Amino acid sequence: MATRVDRQRAPKHYLSAALVLMIAVSPLMSFADYQEVDDIKVFGLLDVSGRFRTSYLFDDRERGAVQLGSFETRSTWEEEFYLLTRTFVYHPGFLNMDMGAGAVFVQQQFDATLGENSDNDTLFNFLTRFNFLELKTYPFSLYYERSHPSVTTSLAGRFLTESDAYGIDGRLFGLLGGSTSIRFEAGSRVTTGASAGRIVDDDSRSGSVEISTSYRNSDRLELKYDRLDTESASGSPGLPIFSSDLSQEIFEVHSRNRLGEDDRFEINQVARRLLQEREAASTTTLDDRQYRADIRWKIKDRSRSYLRYRQYDTRHSSSESETQDVELGLVHQTSDHLSFETAVGYLSTGQSGFNRDLSNARGSINYTRDVGFGTLGLSGALRGSRTNQVSSVSDIQVFDESQVQSGTTPVDLANEFVVGGSVIVSNAARTQVFAEGIDYRVLVIGSVTSIQRLLGGNIIDGETVVVDYSYETSGTAEFDSVGTGFSINLGFLNSMNAYFRYNTQDTNLRAGEFTNPINDRDSLELGIGASNQFLDGWSLSGQYRHRDQDEEISPFVSDTFDVSVMTNLRGTWKLTIASSLSIVDFENSLEDTNQLSYRLGLSGRLFRRAQFTYDVAYLSDDGGSLQREQLRHRFKFQWAYRQVRFVLSALVAEDTLGNSANNNTQVTAQLTRVF
Q1: Whose CA is closest to 660, among 74, 60, 70?
Q2: How many CB atoms lie within 10 A of CB 23?
Q3: Which pLDDT belongs to residue 26?
Q4: C-beta contacts of 363-372 below 8 A and 24+ residues apart
Q5: How large is the average pLDDT for residues 456-472?
């Protein structure tokens, strides 16, 4: 594992200066009075506030095979006392100062499969903020802060880090006749910390300037510039950690213009450029340029039109791509019952060795009417397109596709026909590359590829990852596609709803040939649902949905059942019971879905100042090659009286995926007194 030892930390003289200043002014504070300040004076005390907090955290985690081969148990006591003062020099409008300091006492006991230890730490938090000229049109502030925020490492794990931040921010109001303002900020933050499951080592420097102005009646223009430089060596100790340095600049222009009588004509435009250079295992650069324009206008009271234009130009170290997308549309409300929409568009995309031009047109019509027993809705849609694609390469590379990996639910990649073995998953900071089969697995169903987080790996539940991969271009061809859609919606008996939908897509190859199958499809959907209140305060809702999709690549049939019961019990108590069953049968894959879930929730007041919530959720899915099972118990009790607040919470989580299992238990108690 490599870490940086030559990083430039926050200058020590900032800390020394802040402490010296607090010591210097403390004698004056003893003679200051609490007061409403009207007269000018050398020094004054405006306010003093503080808090005392004591908390207890118990974390227990077991993981490994189903028999749970390893464990980690951590118990932590924390006590914090923090005092914050607001003082001024000469006048609060000239210089007021927020100065705070406090100690955090941490006692930890750690027991794991490999051994046990304990430690006692004393940490110090403090804040120094100088606010100048707050009553003027050009206020600004200087600040320095040390804090110890917590970092979550799992459903039931967290640890304290140390963060040092300093910087300047300010505003300029009332320029150019009072219609223009400028906001600016520049700062630096260093955050470090470590636990058994996560290392945090980040150093960032940022700056931003925003200029906004309004003119005429409702027109507006905004200019923004952001700069970020980040050095990171954060990650999981279970994998090698590489240093990653990121330099990034963002330029943005936003404008809004309204013209004509009653602002019938509106133009919104956004221009954005992102320049990025990252040094990790290798050096990569990115130049991303975007322009978006949305023009809307009213023709009559019942008719409106729009014109949308998008242009994206992305230049990566090893690839270039350009996209242009334009659409012109009309929406017309013929009557209270009938409306229609029509649009034409053009989409052009190009990358190294690949170009695609797509011309399309679509139209839809909607009709609603009250009938004797309810409401009837009918709709139809027709869409057609012609595509001409020319490819001199077999596949296209994708970089930095972002995903959030929550639990063990697979997440689909954005493109179909992903090249086998091309998937690389990294953490967001690019300091680590995760291992397939240990941290995640790749699922392929038809033309769709998904990433599934594995239990016991190095990807944290809820972590954002970035994925690099290649997907096949499908060759050179010219083809037409025609799609149709029809639906019926019926509401009846005041509480029931039923629908029927039918969609088709057919492709006609005019020239060339595809290297991948043409995925024509027919899709039929139907469903029925009801929601009704009965007895006294009870409500029942349920829904059944069926979908039968016949396609060339991966036909499937799915059925979903949902039911829930809610009621108000005595007083403020509420009870919720819900269940869901989802069955998906893929004709050409073993990765089916047979997911059953339950949820029970109870909440209310135990007495006047106390609130209680309990929630239990269970999920089981044995349709795929690896069986999934999740069980969550959550409990929370809150009590408050004047400035005293007490919170007790607990979490028990049991996860199983195939032969891997994680059991997490967390209990947290916190008592806070504000004064």
Answers
A1: 70
A2: 9
A3: 39
A4: 364/340, 364/485, 365/338, 365/339, 365/340, 366/338, 366/339, 366/340, 367/337, 367/338, 368/337, 369/337
A5: 91
Rounded to two decimals, the pTM is: 0.84
How is residue 321 written in tokens?
Answer: 């791509």
Q: Which residues pair with 269 in a beta bridge?
A: 255, 293
Q: Taking Cα atoms as reference points, which of 651, 657, 655 lies closest to residue 60? A: 651
Tell me the C-alpha distance between 9 and 430, whole Å. Answer: 21
Distance CA 303, CA 108 (A): 67
- Those residues with Cβ within 8 angstroms of residue 502's Cβ, 6 or more apart along the chain or in another chain: 485, 486, 487, 522, 523, 524, 525
β-sheet bridge partners, residue 61:
72, 664
With beta carbons less than 8 A apart as the criterion, state whether 238 and 274 touch: no
228-264 burial, b for 16+ CB within 10 Å, e for fewer?
ebbbbbbbbebbebbbbbbbbebebebebbbeeeeee
* DSSP 3-state of 263: helix
20, amino acid identity = V
3-class secondary structure, 18: helix
For 218, other C-beta atoms within 10 Å of its C-beta total 12
As beta bridge partners, residue 117 has: 110
Summarize pLDDT for 69-99 with one digit per residue, the tens: 677 888 889 999 999 999 999 989 999 999 9
Q: Other CB atoms closer than 10 Å to residue 437's CB: what's the count? A: 9
Query: What is the spatial distance between Cα 354 and Cα 420, in angstroms, rounded to a whole number?
Result: 20
DSSP 113: T
φ/ψ (deg, to 5) at 442 = -105, 125
3-state secondary structure 541-583: EEEEEEEEEEECCCCEEEEEEEEEEEEECCCCCEEEEEEEEEE
d(CA 483, CA 177): 55
Which is nearest to 463 in space by CA: 493, 430, 427, 510? 427
List Cβ<8 Å contacts ≥24 apart for 141-150: 141/168, 141/169, 141/170, 142/167, 142/168, 143/167, 143/168, 143/169, 144/14, 144/15, 144/18, 146/15, 148/104, 148/123, 149/191
Residue 68 is which amino acid?
L
Domain boundaries defined on the chain: 12-177, 395-472, 520-674
CB atoms within 10 A of CB 72: 21
Q: Are strands 219-232 and 244-259 parallel, antiparallel or unpaired?
A: antiparallel
Q: CA nearest 306: which of 294, 318, 320, 323? A: 294
Measure Cα distances from 22 to 13, 133, 140 in Å: 14, 21, 20
- CA-based end-to-end distance of the chain: 46
Find where tokens 């729009």 sit: 306
The 3-state DSSP class for residue 587 equals coil
Contact status, residue 605 vs residue 638, Cβ threshold 8 Å: no
Amino acid occupying residue 343 = A
Alpha carbon 558 to its chain's center: 29
Which residues sit opposite 42 in a β-bridge? none
What are the Cα distances from residue 426, in Å, to 111, 204, 387, 401, 453?
30, 20, 34, 10, 12
Alpha carbon distance 548, 555 (integer Å): 8
If DSSP codes are grouped into helix, strand and coil, which group holds residue 421? coil
Task: Select the more confidently predicted residue: 132 or 659.
Answer: 132
For residue 233, pLDDT beyond 90: yes
% of the chain residues with pLDDT over 90: 69
The DSSP H or E segment spanning 12 is helix 12-29
Beta strands per DSSP E along 260-302: 265-279, 283-300
Structural contact between residues 246 and 204, judged by C-beta atoms closer than 8 angstroms: no
The CA distance from 196 to 619, in Å, is 29
